[in-house]
Amino acid sequence: MKVTTAVLAAGAAISIATTAVGVARLRQDARHQVERNEVAAARNQIDWLEKAATNPDLAQLWKPEDMDVEEYMSLLAANQLICALSLRDRLGLVHEGQLPFLASMAMSNEVCQRYWKRFGGLRAQEAEGDRRAEHFTRVLDEAASTLLRARAGTS
Question: Chunked in runs of 10, what are the mean pLDDT values of the chain (155 residues)?
């Protein structure tokens, strides 16, 4: 009887272990699917930004009324850079210590500064409720603010 109990216990342990591995695998697959979806959505957005940033007719259809088409195209190119950085961050390819540095590098570009001044608030609204996107937006906003303060101190 003890051998039978031991065999049953071993079988149950193997069954539980197999189930745990299966559940872990399903979670990993689900996480990878989310990442694939994010990459596909970001790719679509970046492709559209590239088209609108290089096609004045398309940019004319989407530009704000108070902005000329050339300026809008420049800001779309800056947005394209920021979207690519955001995707890298979302996929975990940017270490937390790197993000402030990369944000300050992006914001050191005058076109990115103009983009952030005009659309940074919109990006913050868009990020609401997404902890990672909110963090990314705060880091970019801090980089832009730090640069503005530094320039105001030197002027």
Answer: 68 74 77 84 91 96 96 97 95 91 96 96 96 96 91 72
Q: How many CB atoms lie within 10 A of CB 147?
A: 17
SS3 68: coil
Query: What number of helices (H) and strands (E) belong to the chain?
Result: 6, 0
How far out from the chain centre does Cα 118 lie? 19
Question: Which residues lie below 8 Å from residue 82, measured CB to CB, with a gap of 6+?
Answer: 106, 112, 115, 123, 140
The whole-angstrom separation of Cα 138 and Cα 14 is: 47
Q: pTM of this prediction? A: 0.79
CA-based nearest residue to 41, from 90, 99, 109: 90
* Cα gap 117→94, rounded to integer Å: 24
